Amino acid sequence: MVISSKDVKTIYFCPRKAKFEIRNREKNKKFLLSVATYQTDAFGCILIAEVDEIVSETPFIVKILKTGKKLSEYHMLESAFVGYVIESNGKKLDTIIIESPYYSVSVNWKPYVSRMLSMIGSFCETDEFRVMKTHLCRTCPFSSECFKEIVNSESLTFLHGVKGKTLEKLNSYGINTLKDVINMSPIVEQLIGKEKTKRLIVQAQSILENRPILIRPVPKISEGLYLDIESYTPINFDYLFGILDDGVYIPFLASDPSSESNVFKEVVKYISKTNKPVYHFHNYEINRFKKLARKYNVELSKSFFNRFVDVYKLYIDHVALPVPSHSLKSIARYFGFNWRTQLNGQLVVHSYAEYLATGDERILQEILTYNEDDVRATEFILKKLIEISL
């Protein structure tokens, strides 16, 4: 099994997902090894160090690029992985720099080597890992497999809103399964309140019966526009505004950051020419509009923003679903929608970076296809919500 330093984050948060991903790419094993400058054997696995830049040969300094706003513990473990592999090749490593648009730091990686080796050793020597719910579930292509396993055991793992102290509290009273939530509802109500208990019971029933269940009546839904934004987060650049209007996909594409202002104003003008609601999934789009409006001094009225309707919130507030997460992909796939690409919210950032580096129009076309599928998926699940409410 070939483990890259880029796998450390996934191993840290969800070793089960990492194991699936690494096994699925075994067919590319020879290629990975052929391009890996630094590799070493450990725990029956091959470890390869991937760095984004060699800053200096003498002294030897390497750089690892990130997109986030702050340095996390898994970054230190990744740097320890890189340092360990490089020095196992007899190369003296002077400095590892971790850099994002928000920071650039030289890290002291050596104190993390023992913990990193313990984590990697356990990962290499363990065949199966327990199912756990993490933020990675939202984009994980294997989450449906985990969900099936959880359903069979009737675990509370994928109940929306049940985690941490709430889960511990329920477990301490012997409430360990979905049926326990239903059968011991008076105790659940004492622990977490009447409204939350009602939601948990409906969610548990939805999972056990494998069907959508209405929590409360759905408000009237009118024909509208569907909006999805793609951003290149390393430079805070909103380069693509995809709109679906009456079945027609309209991409508003900014070729570079200098054209972002004009493209944003074109999108505002397009939306303003109609009174239709603007449907989007989660709060990203409305937050970006507010930031861009401030950035470019575009005055947008309260009534303009009142037209924005969050389809995610409609689902959370009105229906329980037997799904591993309430991401767009998870909900849409449950109802039978399929994306034409393998991209997700994280991978599309890397794809756009590759497009900027190569100018390959095929990459841009794949991003456009992904964006179009997102707005069509939003329309698709909204129509499903209407069907459920009838």
Question: Low-confidence parts, pLDDT < 50 over ≥5 residues?
Answer: none
Mean pLDDT: 92
CATH topology of the largest domain: Nucleotidyltransferase, domain 5
Quaternary assembly: single chain
* Number of discrete helical segments: 17
Strand content: 15-25%
Q: What is the terminal-to-terminal distance? A: 51 Å
CATH top level label of the largest domain = Alpha Beta
Helix and strand content put the structural class at alpha/beta
Strand order of the largest sheet: 11-10-9-12-13
Radius of gyration: 24 Å
Could you please describe the fold and organization of this structure?
The chain is α/β, with parallel strands linked by helices. It has three domains: 2-125, no CATH class; 143-210, 5' to 3' exonuclease, C-terminal subdomain (DNA polymerase, domain 1, Orthogonal Bundle); 225-389, 2-Layer Sandwich (Nucleotidyltransferase, domain 5), CATH 3.30.420.10. Helix content is 48%, strand content 17%. It contains 17 helices and 14 strands. It has helices at 8-13, 15-24, 29-35, 73-88, 113-125, 143-153, 164-172, 178-183, 185-192, 194-209, 260-272, 284-295, 302-306, 311-318, 328-334, 347-358, 361-389, and strands at 2-4, 38-42, 45-49, 53-56, 61-65, 95-100, 103-107, 213-214, 225-232, 237-245, 248-253, 278-280, 308-310, 319-320. A five-stranded mixed beta sheet has the order 11-10-9-12-13, with helices on both faces. The protein has a four-stranded mixed beta sheet with strand order 4-5-6-7, covered by helices on one side. A three-stranded mixed beta sheet has the order 1-3-2. Strand 10 (237-245) and strand 11 (248-253) form a beta hairpin. Helix 9 packs across helix 10, helix 15 crosses helix 17 and helix 16 runs antiparallel to helix 17 (361-389). It is globular and about 70 Å long. The termini are far apart.
